[in-house]
Specification:
The complex is a heterodimer. Chain A is mainly alpha-helical. Chain A contains eleven helices and no strands. By secondary structure, chain B is α/β, with parallel strands linked by helices. Classes of the chains: A mainly alpha, B alpha/beta. At the A-B interface, helix 7 and helix 8 of A face helix 2 of B. The complex binds adenosine-5'-diphosphate and magnesium ion.
Chain lengths: 248, 244
């Protein structure tokens, strides 16, 4: 019931609004430039029944999910260490401050040279972009932990590891997951970018290929697929946040 | 059981506590009364081992304190409950840190929560509890590890008058039942007189102990309605009026 109210209803309303605006635009412009929404939706729904669509979807989902796991798995612990230890922070923060402002996509050529044109490079670049956001959000979240919560744990005789486990880790979790969720959209955007070359698999490829053939309905199949993937990643990280931070 | 001798403490170049000495016996309670900002929290943090002393000595059962130990429970100002733990987990945390098995620590935590009137609230988070209930959880947490000494930092200051008196009664009743000695700091004269067998007046900058009051009427829930209670409050107010 709550699931329907919180998740389904907002999406249905959004879809209806988008449909209407699109329809008006399509009538004003022309069908050649912008297909009618019902045509695009029809193409998408039929594509959902083909294994070809799911093949591309799975390729994209694999890259995105792997990137989120790797990026989060590396950045979250580093964020906690930087936020909780002055030594680690002193050591790493100049590096982070210097590299944080660089748009990580410009490193793409370097990564391609190092790791080749395959999936691994695509995953690395997404996890790099995502990881920085998670790292900074986690670090700042841990720095903002109330001293009295730490005193409370220390006053019970906790050692360093217990303090990390009972205090810093749970305090950092919501920050880490919020960053993951907020940046799932960025992951999909970068995914499109890295799938637009050197691959014949993935939703990004699907879109670029359809564009090349001026098959606008097929193009929208890819776009809807991206949107679906974005929604799943967003709700997935939301779900992870809910179950691992029930107090939040 | 607790011996504090000649301790001094400052932060940066600012001296906060100067030459504090007193003793707390095993069957006693002491309330330290002092105005806001005089160094009460600092003193409790020193005794609990959270902060390092500059000079002087703190002994608990003749052992010097250099870091927090399970024998000493501290109830922090603003309760010190962890928002990411349920009430049960908060109460059981001390036992968990000492390595007590999950089953044993939960059994014990559940029993204490029940004793403090919080049966059924084990799986709630502190954020949904009222101030008075949170303080009950904090008291449960302090007693869970069966401490030999209880330190309390203005435990009832932010509660409304009725809840405050209720919890003061609970604390006194618990003390009468267990006689775990406690050291409580507060800025409320009434609270000091109700809860302290002896009352130490802390004041000055840097702060030191200016005066000690004995409180022969202490130890009775009905004390609040007696004239000797008001008499002592009046004379303490009179005295502190001269130097607060
Ligand atoms: N960690 C700290 N660093 C610097 N100054 C502190 C610190 N803790 C307390 N102080 C100072 O010490 C004095 C006493 O503080 P505190 O012990 O909290 O007083 P109280 O609990 O009686 O209100 C205050 O002037 C406060 O600013
Ligand atoms: Mg204080």
């Amino acid at each position: 019931m709550i699931f329907i109210k919180r998740i389904v209803v907002p999406y249905v309303i959004t879809i209806l609004v988008v449909f209407l605006v699109w329809k008006v635009l399509a009538i004003l412009l022309s069908r050649n430039v912008l297909p009618y929404p019902e045509d695009a939706i029809h193409a998408f729904l039929s594509a959902l029944l083909t294994s070809e669509f799911w093949h591309h979807f799975a390729a994209s989902a694999f890259r995105a999910v792997m990137a989120m796991i790797i990026g989060w798995g590396i950045a979250f612990p580093i964020g906690i260490l930087m936020g909780s230890s002055h030594q680690v922070d002193k050591f790493l923060s100049p590096f982070v401050s210097m590299t944080y402002p660089i748009p990580k996509v410009v490193l793409l050529p370097v990564i391609l040279l190092l790791f080749g044109l395959g999936d691994f490079s695509k995953i690395i670049i997404i996890s790099l972009i995502l990881g920085y956001q998670v790292l900074v959000a986690t670090r700042d979240g841990v720095r903002g932990i109330q001293p009295q919560h730490l005193d409370s744990i220390r006053s019970l005789g906790a050692n360093k590891w217990q303090l990390l486990w009972e205090g810093y880790l749970p305090a950092a979790l919501p920050h880490g997951f919020t960053a993951l969720r907020l940046n799932s959209g960025v992951s999909v955007a970068v995914l499109f970018f890295v799938e637009s070359f050197a691959t014949t698999e993935g939703l990004g490829y699907l879109i670029m290929d359809a564009w090349g053939q001026l098959d606008f309905n097929a193009m929208f199949v890819g776009i809807f697929g991206m949107s679906l993937l974005g929604v799943i990643l967003n709700e997935g990280s939301n779900f992870l946040e809910k179950i691992s931070c029930p107090w939040y | 059981m607790l011996t504090v001798s000649h301790i001094c403490k400052g932060f940066d170049s600012k001296a906060v506590l100067k030459d504090i000495s007193f003793q707390l016996d095993a069957r006693e309670t002491i309330v330290i009364l002092g105005p806001s900002g005089c160094g009460k929290t600092t003193l409790l943090h020193l005794i609990s081992g959270l902060e390092k002393i500059e000079s002087g000595r703190i002994l608990i059962d003749n052992r010097a304190i250099s870091k927090p130990i399970p024998d000493v429970a501290l109830i922090l100002q603003n309760y010190g409950l962890l928002p990411w733990k349920t009430n049960l987990q908060n109460v059981a945390l001390g036992l968990k840190i000492q390595g007590v098995s999950r089953k044993d620590r939960n059994t014990r935590a559940r029993k204490i929560l029940t004793d403090l009137g919080l049966a059924g609230r084990e799986n709630d988070y502190p954020s949904v509890m009222s101030g008075g209930e949170q303080q009950r959880v904090a008291i449960a947490r302090a007693y869970a590890s069966e401490p030999r000494l209880l330190l309390m930092d203005e435990p009832f200051s932010s509660l409304d008058a009725i809840t405050r008196e209720n919890l003061q009664d609970t604390l006194l009743t618990t003390w009468l039942g267990t006689t775990v000695p406690y050291l409580l700091v507060t800025h409320s004269v009434e609270e000091a007189v109700f809860l302290g067998k002896r009352i130490l007046i802390l004041s000055g900058s840097p702060a030191s102990i200016h005066e000690i009051f004995d409180n022969p009427g202490f130890g009775d829930i009905a004390y609040r309605r007696s004239s000797s209670y008001y008499e002592l409050i009046r004379s303490i107010r009179h005295r502190i009026g001269e130097y607060w």
